[in-house]
Design goal:
The complex is a heterodimer. The longest helix of chain A has 34 residues. Chain A contains 12 helices and no strands. In chain A, helix 8 packs antiparallel against helix 11 and helix 10 runs antiparallel to helix 11. Chain A is globular and about 65 Å long. By secondary structure, chain B is α/β, with parallel strands linked by helices. Chain B folds into 2 domains: 133 residues, Periplasmic binding protein-like II (D-Maltodextrin-Binding Protein, domain 2, 3-Layer(aba) Sandwich), CATH 3.40.190.10; 98 residues, D-Maltodextrin-Binding Protein, domain 2 (3-Layer(aba) Sandwich), CATH 3.40.190. Chain B starts with a helix and ends in a 6-residue tail after the last helix. The chains are: A mainly alpha, B alpha/beta. Chains A and B meet through helix 3, helix 9 and helix 10 of A and helix 3, strand 7 and helix 8 of B.
């Protein structure tokens, strides 16, 4: 295996880790709100979160490229803040991946929160637990399988991302050339041996992750 | 009413039987000319060309694995030659249908000067090129920068498009300030149509000879042969020239 391949693997793992952590931070309040709210906005927010499930990566990639470019609203904002432009950078990929993998993290956590029901929370309230305390001491521990599923799926889905990275990444070694893009490069350059190593590794990795998810996580089994 | 429908139906079937279709894999840089040539080809010969546009390396992999293309208009001359050697294309059919011209282009007016001095002066964050490993225009861009002595300085600024069309898209959206693309992509009435650009002198890179070839699936197919012959004709040649290509 070449250095560039190892570099791509390292970059992919770094990207997936950063994205998963961010998604747990961003996704948990969204999931909690979606699970508890009676607001009419629930349908709208739920649909927006689920959009990446049905949209082709080219649509997201295209809009992100335009939005983050120098003439787009996000691009103007980041330039105004002195951060420069996001396309072709690692932070750009992180933001794109957060959007792209959002439903894979929010939905399992939301389902887990919903499965708790009102009762345990009411009991906690009668014992004078604050909402904050209830959330951390009751809801989160009970929803643990949902968090686990969300984290694993978010991580795996980010590792498996291709279309968006291709469209806004610019294929820069060490910054935006992730494993899926590296495989594509090998195939296009007719370097089938290297392509097989990486592609086979991806198949194995994905299988092990999903196998672990379905074997050791009973909550997920019920959902599936 | 029934009669009219019947006549229509028969007419359609008869036309379908006479007209032959040919599936063509076309290098992304030749998208513009092919879109002009395809309807003329159909009008003049009765055959219909159905083009797919993309990277030549990808087409190679697809054809080797059974893609139903009958003709390839490649972005280089190596891929067609290799396909003939490996039995995926028909020997004796490759010919150079166009010689590509490289431009350094920016979507911004007055950004790229007409001598390409900007490559030495800098003042940009990203320079888009097509992947030099797989795209001939990317390889030519690298060669030109090498001969200008700026390749090492500029390498950290490279962003790579999967093919030349994506490279143009990076520049057109402004995400990259400038990039090396094919003249055919930005030419309008014999000059660079929008933004600013520099036509890279031919002495800075080896000629980008683009060869066409009949693929194994197009063997003995009249429409495939007709398309290749049509590309050799004066009408097609004039169109190809108008898109900034040279001819052998």
């Amino acid at each position: 295996m070449e250095d560039t391949d190892l570099g791509a693997i390292w970059l992919t793992l770094k990207l997936a880790t950063v994205v998963t952590v961010l998604l747990l931070i961003v996704g948990t309040p969204i999931a909690w709100w979606l699970a508890r709210t009676r607001s009419r906005l629930k349908g709208v927010v739920g649909a927006v979160v689920a959009l990446p499930l049905v949209l082709p990566p080219t649509v997201l990639g295209f809009y992100l490229l335009v939005a983050m470019g120098p003439n787009g609203p996000v691009g103007r904002l980041t330039e105004g803040l002195g951060l420069g432009l996001l396309p072709f950078t690692f932070p750009g990929l992180v933001i794109a991946s957060v959007f792209y993998s959002l439903p894979f993290v929010v939905q399992p956590i939301q389902n887990a929160f919903e499965a708790i029901g009102e009762r345990p929370l009411e009991v906690a309230a009668t014992l004078r637990a604050s909402p904050w305390d209830t959330f951390w001491s009751v809801a989160v521990p009970l929803a643990k399988p949902g968090f686990l599923s969300g984290a694993i799926l978010g991580f795996a889905h980010t590792v498996g991302e291709f279309g968006i990275v291709l469209m806004i990444g610019g294929n820069i070694p060490g910054k935006t050339r992730v494993v899926s893009v590296q495989i594509y490069d090998h195939v296009e350059a007719l370097e089938y041996t290297q392509a097989h190593w990486l592609a086979g590794g991806m198949v194995l990795f994905s299988f092990v992750v999903l196998f672990a998810l379905y074997t050791f996580n009973p909550a997920r089994r019920k959902l599936a | 009413m029934k009669n009219t429908l019947f006549c229509l139906l028969t007419a359609t079937i008869v036309t379908l039987a006479q007209a032959d279709e040919v599936q063509v894999a076309v290098a992304a840089n030749f998208t513009g000319p092919m879109q002009v040539i395809a309807p003329l080809f159909e009008r003049d010969t009765g055959h219909k060309a159905i083009p797919s546009f993309g990277a030549t390396g990808k087409f190679y992999a697809q054809v080797v694995n059974g893609a139903p293309f009958e003709v390839l208009l490649a972005a280089d001359d190596e891929t067609p030659a290799r396909m003939v050697r490996e039995g995926h294309a028909v020997a004796g059919t490759p010919f150079t249908y166009a010689i590509g011209t490289l431009v350094l282009w920016s979507a911004k007016a007055d950004f790229v000067d007409d001598k390409g001095e900007i490559l030495k002066k800098g003042g940009f964050r990203h320079l888009a090129i097509a992947n030099p490993k797989t795209a001939p225009y990317g390889a030519a861009a690298l060669q030109a920068m090498g001969r200008l002595g700026v390749a090492d300085n500029l390498k950290p600024l490279f962003v790579q498009g999967e093919n030349i069309a994506q490279t143009q898209q990076f520049v057109a959206t402004g995400a990259a300030e400038l990039g090396f693309i094919a003249y055919s992509q930005v030419i309008k009435n014999g000059r660079i149509g929008s933004g600013s650009g520099w036509i890279v002198p031919g002495k800075l890179y080896d000629p980008i000879r683009q060869d066409a070839v009949i693929l194994a699936r197009g063997r003995d197919k009249p429409a495939a042969l007709a398309l290749l012959n049509y590309l050799k004709g004066d009408k097609a040649k004039a169109i190809i020239r108008s898109f900034g290509y040279e001819l052998p």
